[in-house]
Amino acid sequence: MLACLLASGAAAPPLYEPSLRSKGHPSVAAGPAHFALLLHGLVGSIGLPASDSIRKMQGGSRRLVTLSALSHLSHVVRANEADGGVDVHIHSWNPELAPLIDELYGASLRSSSHEPVETRQKARSQAISIGRGAAQIARHERERQLTYTLVLVMRLDLVLAAPVRLRAFSPAHVWFSARCCVQPASTEQHRSAVEATCGPLERNNGPWRDAARVLLLGTHARGQGPKWGTDKRVDSRRVMGFCRPNYHGNVKSSHPLATQGEAYVLHDWWFAARTHVVSSWLDIDRNWEQYVSTLVEAGVKYMWSHYIWAMHVHDILNLTSAVRFSADVRGQIGRNAWVRLEHLRRGNGVPIGSVGKPYDNNNPVVTYLAEDGPHQLMEPAGNAYTDAVGICPAFRRLGGGPEVSPKDLLPRPIERDADGRYLGLFSERFAPMAAQCAEARLPQLVVCCGWPRICAVQICPAEDGGGLSSLEKHHRSARQVVDYTRNDSAIVSLLLHRVELGSLGPGNSSGEMGRSKAAAGAAGRPPRRRRTSEESHRIKRAAGEHPGGVAGR
């Protein structure tokens, strides 16, 4: 199948009208599949985030969707054949990629729908795509008169590096990705820990010298990284801990979002639940203004899916007690994985801090000398030196010490503090959320040094039924596919509507705090404001009236 696709890749694919396709292929596994994989959303280009492609005449990357599909088929579909099998259902905002997507998933595909983008509000668009995909799944369950044990919901452009064993996810729970963020060194305990690890490194004395310092620190715009104890910015992004919403300070409510913000952040690359839970994501679209109003009143800056999903689970579905976290999905956004795989393809890589395009500037590769030999690692995919995907099973702190395995830490119970909270942050209601960041429960803090901040070196398997060798194989196959060019005649009519969406005013590029066009009109205000000259130039350029390429990442 893939050979046929590659052979035909030199010619632009035909136009494909948005439609719903139901497949009648026999299941890959014997009998009806136990699990469903729901892929959703918008695929962007290699050099452009998916959300930015809405405002530009840029079709989704055929290479990226090929790389992602090959990893899904290998690490989800085939990996679960012995455990009951997986059916694939897809809803995308990429009608220009529909023939390729449907052909790639082939006999595993049960239904697919590929529609034009309907809104620039990213979280809302994602929820709509998930909800419509869930409707396809529910329809298929009625037709076959059997429900799926579990549905794995995943971004269409997520690249996987290892098998995802769905039998490990209890259907009694709602599963999300384990995740940590880097927080300021806000206490004396934090600052002491940073001084012990980063002080010698950043002052270029002690055991960290010369090449090792350059390896871990990189280069700052001023020629050196800010040194601990000498730069006013050194407290920022220093300690691994729980993520929290971005606030603008204008709090108008006592909602837990404002008082227990760490409970209201969920990673939005994937989740797993029963079909009826997944179907509820469409309610986010139906009640969008309610979600936005609650976030704004709580002082939250951005309307991101991270916060919207948490509100939905905690306050609408009341499923907080069912939330669980897993580190078993080793995935990375396709455009980031592609950049790192390109470096590996080149051979020895380039040192941190070197400047070049299109790859070196944001994602340089280094060679890290470990006890078992040299390893090629990338500038952080999640604040750690890692491989092309990240989320590896274990890591080592910069200051040395034994390996730490977040995967092993996650199942361990967390004891309640003397004041009735968990890890000093979470009330009894939000107790399950205390498991989201495994590193936060370690007695020794994980601190971050250098510029950009590096917190650890991840221990990534060379081959765990996946790993880099499989990824490199998929990457080689995907590189043979011919990508679209800007204003490609085969897709321009399918993308013209994106120019109109891009002219609605910038709103908030990180999540659309403002009201939608329809809501603004209903409130008696004009749905659009006058464009600035810069915006007009951008729209005209996207429509082909100005020369020049599409801006990079």
Summarize, please.
By secondary structure, this protein is an alpha/beta fold. The chain is 31% helix and 14% strand.
Keywords:
eight-stranded mixed β-sheet; disordered C terminus; three-stranded mixed β-sheet; disordered N terminus; alpha/beta; 553 residues
Question: What do you see in this structure?
Answer:
It is a single chain. With 553 residues, the protein is of the alpha/beta class. The chain has a domain at 1-179 and 267-280 and 317-346 and 464-507 and 524-553. It is built from 18 helices and 17 strands. The protein has helices spanning 2-7, 50-53, 62-77, 98-105, 122-144, 188-202, 210-217, 256-259, 275-279, 282-286, 288-297, 305-316, 334-346, 406-409, 467-479, 492-502, 517-522, 533-542; strands spanning 20-22, 35-41, 86-92, 109-114, 150-155, 158-160, 174-177, 181-183, 239-241, 270-273, 323-326, 331-333, 365-370, 373-378, 384-385, 394-397, 456-459. Strands 1-4-3-2-5-10-7-11 form an eight-stranded mixed beta sheet, sandwiched between helices. Strands 15-17-16 form a three-stranded mixed beta sheet, with no helix packed on it. Strands 6-12 form a two-stranded antiparallel ribbon. Strand 13 (365-370) and strand 14 form a beta hairpin. Helix 3 (62-77) runs parallel beside helix 4 and helix 3 packs antiparallel against helix 15. It is globular and about 60 Å long. The chain starts with a helix and ends in an 11-residue tail after the last helix.
What proportion of the residues form beta strands (DSSP E)?
5-15%
Query: Rough shape?
Result: globular
Number of strands: 17
Q: Strand sequence of the main sheet, in spatial order?
A: 1-4-3-2-5-10-7-11
The main pleated sheet reads as: 8 strands, mixed
Mean pLDDT: 75
Report the span from N to C terminus.
Answer: 32 Å
Number of continuous helical runs:
18
Proportion in helices: 25-40%
